[in-house]
Amino acid sequence: MYLNRRGNLVCCFRKKLFFLLRQTKVLVRQRFPWGLFFLFRTPYSDGMDLLDKRITSDWIEIREKLLLPQRLKQYLKIDDQRLSPLPQALRMAGMEGVVEVKKKLANSVFTFLTRLSFTTPDQAEILDIEGELRVLVYFLSVEVLFAHGSLKPAKEAEDDLAGNSGSGRLPVEQVMLEVKNRVAANPELVKNSHVKNIFMAIQMYQKEFGNFSQMSLSIPDDRAATFFMNFKKRLDGILENIQSHYRVIQQAEDEELRKEFRRQEEAQFAFPDLVKLLQSQAHEISRVRSTIFHALQDGSQVRKVLLKLVELQAPFITLLEQELRMLDARQDAGTRGHPSAVKLARSIANSMESNVLKKFA
Predict the structure, then answer these.
(1) CA–CA dist 320, 105 (Å, integer)
(2) b/e map of 326-359 (b: 16 or more CB within 10 Å)?
(3) Are residues 143 and 320 in contact, defined by beta-carbon separation less than 8 angstroms?
(4) Do residue 54 and residue 145 come from a single domain?
(5) How far apart are CA 324 and CA 71, in angstroms?
(6) What value does the mean pLDDT take over residues 243-262?
(7) Please, what's the largest Cα pairwise distance for the chain?
(8) If you ran DSSP here, which 8-state letter would residue 310 be given?
(9) What is d(CA 231, CA 219) in angstroms, rounded to the nearest whole number?
């Protein structure tokens, strides 16, 4: 009987306790919408909230400075000594160019993190790896400038223009044919002064040649040498006039072709999709860096938190492979290898060694 009565009392106590808890939740929910969250969250959730805040705040700072590498360099506290090997690594990169260099930097970080499953690192080793992440973020900011169009690829050495080559003067008949073909393709060229002068000089050449054919038969032998010399001098002058005007036309055409080639070359890396992709890469690397800092400051379960970062390796490498495909799509069809990625790597190396980045501060 006692046990039964005690059991009944316990049951009543539990019912009252649950009733009070329900009433408390209702009251808190009505007056303080956030009250339940703060009332029932755990120390683990506190730590995760702090990490999420750290990741978000760090990324906001980095994102705002992605187009300002000098300011980003100061924010990340990167010294020149840590950056000094990067240009040479970019120039020595293999077929995957800029993507290859980023893979090596990222893999060195993730390889270190993977080893934590059977080693215990000290704080100095972890901070050194964090330094590699800072270099990678800075590297990405310089690459973003090319994708944004703020930086242009270095101008490569160009051959002489076709009109500047002194060898191989075309016969006057071929010059005339070339000019006529150009006029047929573009009737507006009839108004070009050089085209007009060529047509006039050709008419003069034909007239002089006709006069020579008629007069050469009646020229006395004692005057023949002087006659031929004067005739040759006049024809050479006319031919040189034709060739000089034709060279000017060639130079103008070649210059336009080079300008168009240059515009295409400069736009090779400048397109919005690449900007978005590079921002995604920077975001992932910033997340890894923020997590490392948080783990060191928190001091609890450091190895567990860092090992969790290994899961980000595959998604990041996927972003790099996507970038390689993007760059390949910007080069001529059928091109072997990845020349766009190699050229971008060398352009970044040139910009890092010059003073051009100082204006992005």
Answers:
(1) 12
(2) bbeebbeeeeeebbbbbbbbbbbbbbbeeebbee
(3) no
(4) yes
(5) 28
(6) 77
(7) 160
(8) G
(9) 12
Those residues with Cβ within 8 angstroms of residue 86's Cβ, 6 or more apart along the chain or in another chain: 101, 135, 139, 349, 352
pLDDT, averaged across the chain:
81
Query: Do 171 and 236 belong together in one domain?
Result: yes
pTM of the model: 0.65
Which amino acid does the sequence have at 315?
P
Same-domain pairing of 210 and 183: yes
Which one of 237, 266, 295 terminates a domain? Answer: 266
**Domain termination site, one of 266, 289, 313:** 266
Q: Domain total for the chain?
A: 3
Give Cβ neighbours of residue 27 (< 8 Å, ≥ 6 apart): none
Residues 198, 115 share a domain: no
Query: Would the pLDDT of 16 be above 50?
Result: yes
Region 116-140: mean pLDDT is: 91
Determine the structural domain holding residue 24 and report its residue range. Answer: 2-39
Write the pLDDT tens digit of every residue in 306-361.
999 999 999 999 999 999 999 998 877 777 788 889 989 999 999 998 877 888 76
